[in-house]
Design goal:
Elements: H1 11-15, E1 21-29, E2 34-42, E3 56-62, E4 70-72, E5 86-91, E6 97-103, E7 109-115, E8 126-135, E9 142-152, E10 160-161, E11 165-171, E12 179-182, E13 185-186, E14 196-200, H2 206-211, E15 212-214, E16 220-223, E17 234-243, E18 250-260, E19 268-274, E20 289-294, E21 317-318, E22 322-328, E23 335-339, E24 342-343, E25 353-357, H3 362-367, E26 368-370, E27 376-379, E28 390-399, E29 406-416, E30 424-427, E31 437-440, E32 449-452, E33 454-456, E34 467-473, E35 479-481, E36 487-490, E37 501-509, E38 517-526, H4 530-540, H5 548-589, H6 606-609, E39 620-622, E40 631-634, E41 646-649, E42 660-662
Length: 672
């Protein structure tokens, strides 16, 4: 007797909105036969969402609608009944509308929009709201509709000009149709309420309307008649703008048009009085006539102008008398390095300047060039700081007058150094086959200087500052090198177990950017005597040096020449001695008895003593009574073609080479 559900039951399909919803049935019972009646009540569950007729709604509301106006909205439907049916509405937050929910007689609910704050189309043209319908289920079901509100325009805005006063200048000979000014006004309303029409104000004079025309659509104010500065210098024009609304709004502006004078009037000369005739004896400065000149034009157009012709009386003037230009070496050819500037207060050709480079030095002409018109100095070739550091030149600035005037400007170009040269090792020289071996004695104490690496850098300044570091050594702990001096010292005391031969590789670096470097190899031998080192060098010298024969022959030639010179000098000395002995015998044979025998002479060899040069030689001849006689000295031997010159001296100088002998010539008698 169990009653079962044979298929899914849908209360809304069976009963719709009827509540309660029940199904009746009958049951037949046999043996005994009986008939029973029954009913099943279908209870509602919240299985349906509220539904709006459409997903969005659009309303049109005029901005002139007052606050408090109500606008009904379409209701949502929910097939559920009781608590599960539609129970409430909600409206999205906004500043203008509120939601009022009403209940009908049958218990259903509907919503109305209530305007709380007046709309302004110029502020917001469209509003977007969201209306939500909720049932009473748990959890509640809902539905939404998008509400779009178009704010309709009302003619609540008058036109507005972008400026209250316009100003314009017009020449008096301006042709008709020329644009004077363009006025502009705007209206925030839409449609006819926002369309602007321009016109003259009612109090605009008729004369202005004859001279000017206004476009009602664009606001263009144009010249219509013939303007005359001498008649009216300033026009004050009043204009207005109206919209096309039922009750049109009006705006006003003013246009000030200033007429600019042009030289359209010829001067008028009036003779006030003439004193005629003029006596022939009239003094200079006597008034002959009174004239008056008038011109209807204004300002400069009304003056009588006297033009002064220009004379080339001003030489070009440079902005500075000299220029110092610094150029980095290894520059790219053809670059501009300087712009020489000069001015000339004259006019026309007298002020036209030309620039030339004076060819004082041929080197300057090959390396530099100047633009004749603008004074730009160009460098034609690449410069080398190591070749030449400074260039001096003169730039002549000349005007085009007749005769022309010119000014000379001094330009000095200094070539700044670029680190393009690596250090060069002078000692030990790396490009020769000779071996530079330095000797240090065994047991030498620490701090003893052994040798020195000598190097130069062709660059200058910081680029030529060389630093020395020990790059490689047979025993790195034995020797050290001065960072800036290149001097090699013993870092510790030499021991007996130290190697006898040491090879040091010194790294030389400059301080330029980029850094350039070189290296030097120094050989050091540990030995008691230099002879041991020379023996070692002889043993290690190459046996097949082709140049050693040449050296041998050169040494042999030097020895032979020296021997020949020595033999020649000995022969000359012997010859001189022989001649001297002959002269001495001759003097002894002819010596007179009236004279006293001269004492022994003194020979002072100052030449070999190192006091005087060898060619500084004097011979002195004295009489027997030499204390009252003059010294006759020969000057130093010279290569003069006229032979030796002689001079008389009052006394001898110390340190000179003198030969003192007695003369054999006749001395003056006391009477003489």
């Amino acid at each position: 007797g169990a009653l079962l559900v044979s298929e899914r039951i849908d209360r809304e399909e069976l009963c719709g909105a009827l509540s309660p919803c029940s199904l009746s049935f009958e049951i037949v019972v046999e043996n005994p036969l009986e008939l029973y009646s029954g009913a099943v009540e279908i209870q509602d569950i919240n299985d349906n969402d509220p539904v709006f007729p459409s997903s969005q709604a659009r309303l049109e509301i005029s901005e002139s609608v007052a606050a408090g106006a109500r606008f009904p909205l379409e209701s949502a439907q929910d097939p559920d009944v009781g608590v599960n049916s539609l129970q409430a509405y909600q409206l999205s937050a906004n500043p203008h509308f509120a939601l009022d929910v009403q209940t009908r007689v049958d218990g259903s609910k509907y919503a109305e929009l209530v305007l709380e704050k007046e709309l302004d189309r110029e502020e917001q043209r469209e509003l977007h709201l969201v209306l939500t319908a909720l049932d009473g289920g748990s959890p509640p079901r809902s539905a939404q509709v998008q509400i779009y509100i178009d704010v309709l325009d009302a003619n609540d805005n008058a036109p507005v000009f972008n400026q209250s006063t316009y100003k314009a200048n017009v020449r008096e000979n301006t042709p008709s149709g020329t644009l004077v000014a363009r006025i502009s006004a705007y209206d925030l309303d839409d449609g006819p309420n926002g369309e602007v029409v321009y016109s003259f104000s009612s109090h605009t004079p008729a004369k202005v309307r004859e001279l000017f025309a206004l476009d009602s659509a664009t606001g263009d104010l144009r010249v219509k008649g013939q303007l005359d500065y001498e008649e009216t210098k300033l026009y004050e024009i009043y204009l207005q703008a109206k919209d096309k609304g039922v009750a049109p709004g009006v705006a006003h502006c003013k246009v000030l048009v200033e007429v600019v004078d042009v030289n359209d009037n010829t001067p008028e000369v009036t003779v006030t009085s003439v004193y005629s005739p003029v006596p022939e004896d009239a003094a200079p400065g006597t008034v002959v006539a009174l004239l008056s000149v008038t011109d209807l034009d204004s300002h400069d157009n009304g003056l009588i102008l006297v033009q002064v012709s220009d004379v080339n009386d001003n030489a070009p003037k440079a902005s500075q008398d000299s220029y110092d230009v610094y150029v980095l070496e290894n520059n790219a050819p053809g670059i501009p390095i300087l712009n020489v500037s000069a001015t000339d207060p004259d006019l026309g050709r007298n002020a036209h300047l030309s620039y030339t480079l004076l060819q004082g030095d041929l080197t300057v002409g090959h390396l530099f060039s100047i633009n004749r018109d603008n004074g730009t100095l160009y460098l034609l070739a690449s410069l080398d700081h190591e070749d030449q550091v400074e260039f001096n030149m003169m730039v002549r600035v000349q005007d085009g007058g007749s005769p022309p005037l010119a000014t000379n400007i001094s330009v000095s170009v200094f070539v700044t150094d670029f680190n393009d040269n690596a250090p060069t090792v002078l000692y030990p020289h790396s490009n020769t086959t000779a071996t530079y071996t330095n000797v240090v004695a065994p047991g030498t104490a620490a701090g003893k200087m052994v040798t020195k690496v000598v190097a130069v850098d062709a660059d200058s300044g910081y680029n030529a500052w060389i630093s020395y570091t020990l790059l490689q050594a047979t025993d790195p702990s034995l020797f050290s090198v001065g960072l800036h001096s290149g001097e090699i010292f013993t870092a510790r005391q030499l021991r007996e177990d130290d190697p006898p031969e040491h090879t040091l590789v010194i790294l030389l670096k400059d301080h330029g950017e980029p850094v350039l470097s070189a290296s030097a190899t120094v050989s050091i031998s540990v030995a008691e005597m230099v002879k041991e080192v020379l023996t070692d060098l002889t043993d290690t010298a190459p046996t097949s040096d082709p140049r050693r024969h040449i050296t041998f022959y050169l040494i042999l030639a030097v020895i032979l020449v020296s021997a020949a010179f020595f033999i020649s000098m000995v022969a000359v000395g012997i010859f001189k001695c022989y001649k001297w002995r002959q002269s001495k015998e001759l003097l002894n044979s002819s010596r007179s008895t009236h004279y006293r025998t001269p004492g022994p002479f003194h020979h002072i060899d100052a030449v070999r003593g190192g006091f005087m040069p060898p060619n500084f030689y004097h011979q002195v001849y004295l009489t027997t009574d030499s204390r009252q006689s003059d010294l006759l000295c020969k000057k130093p031997f010279t290569s003069s073609p006229l032979g030796s010159r002689q001079s008389t001296m009052r006394n001898g100088e110390p340190g000179m080479y003198h030969q003192i002998v007695g003369t054999a010539s006749r001395l003056p008698t006391p009477a003489e």
